[in-house]
Amino acid sequence: MSDVLLIADHASNHVPADIDLDIDPVLLNQHMAIDIGVEPLGRLLCARLGMDGIFGPVSRLVVDLNREEDAPGLIPSESDGFAIPGNRLLDAEGRRARVERFWRPYHRTIADRIAVERPCLIVSLHSFTPRLSARPEEARPWQVGVLYNRDDRAARPGIAALRAAGIVTGDNEPYSGKVLNATMNMHAEANAVPYLGLEVRQDLIGDEAGVADWADRLAPVIAAVADGLRKTAHGG
Rounded CA gap, 10 and 57, in Å? Predict the structure, then answer.
C-alpha cells in the first residue's frame, strides 16, 4: 500500500535544547505536548500495511503543526489550562524563526511527497484525551473519532467500517474537522486527495498491548477504505 500515506502531526514530545518553554517537564508526557500512543501506533500501521509515514518531529508546544501558519494558537501560550510561559515571551521575530525552523520544513516535506507520488488515500492519525483537565465534566466516550471538513469520501466508508467492527465511533467527534483540520485542508483537500482523519482515545493506546490491539483493529479498516477508493478511481 505504498499509495497510502500516513501523517501524524503530533507524534513527538521533543523540545530542542535551545528552546525553554519554562514548564514542568511532567507536562511533556501529557496530551497537551504529544498525541499519546500515535508514534508507535502509526509506525506499526505503516509496517503492517506497507504505508509511508510522515511523523511530526517536535512537540505541539514548540509549534502546533496542525495549525495554519498564521493561526493564533500556532505557538500556544497555554494548553488545557496550563500556561506555557516560554512561549509568552516570544516576540514577532522569535515566532517567525520558529515557524521557519519547524513548521515550514514539515509541511514542505508533505507537499513534496504528495507532488512526487500522489497517494490514493492519506491517513491522518491523532489521539485524544478521555477528559480535558479544563472541562472534566465532559466525558468523551468514543473509542475512535473520524474527522473531516468538506471532503468525506474516505470518512463515510471509514465510519461505517469502524462501526461494523463494533468500535464506538464519533462522526466529527471529539471535535469537528470543519473547525480544526489544518494539515488535511492544506495537503489533502487542496489537492483533492481523499483522507481518513482518525482520532484514537489515548487510554486505549497508552501501552504496547493497546497499540498492538488497535493496530489489529484499524489496519483492516484503512485497507478497506483504500481498496474502495481505488475501485472508484478505476471505475470499479
Answer: 8
What is the number of structural domains in the chain? 1
CA 220 vs CA 72, 214, 215, 226: distances in Å: 38, 11, 9, 10
pTM of the full structure: 0.95
CA distance 165 to 13: 32
Rounded CA-CA distance 36/31 in Å is 6
One digit per residue, pLDDT tens: the chain, 236 residues? 689 999 999 999 999 999 999 999 999 999 899 999 999 999 999 999 999 999 999 999 999 999 999 998 999 999 878 899 999 999 999 999 999 999 999 999 999 999 999 999 999 999 998 876 556 667 889 999 999 999 999 999 999 999 999 999 999 999 899 999 999 999 999 999 999 999 999 999 999 999 999 999 999 999 999 999 999 887 75
Q: Which residue has the cell 479498516?
A: 221
SS3 197: strand
Cα 21 to chain center, whole Å? 22
On whether the CB atoms of residues 75 and 63 are closer than 8 A, the answer is: yes
Grid cell in block for residue 85: 510561559
Distance, in Å, from the CA atom of 156 to the CA atom of 169, rounded to the nearest integer, reads 12
Tell me, what CATH number does 209's domain have? 3.40.630.40
List of residues 6+ apart from 205 with CB closer than 8 A:
36, 37, 38, 40, 41, 127, 211, 214
Which domain does 159 fall in, by range?
A: 4-233
* Distance in angstroms (rounded) separating the CA atoms of residues 91 and 94: 5
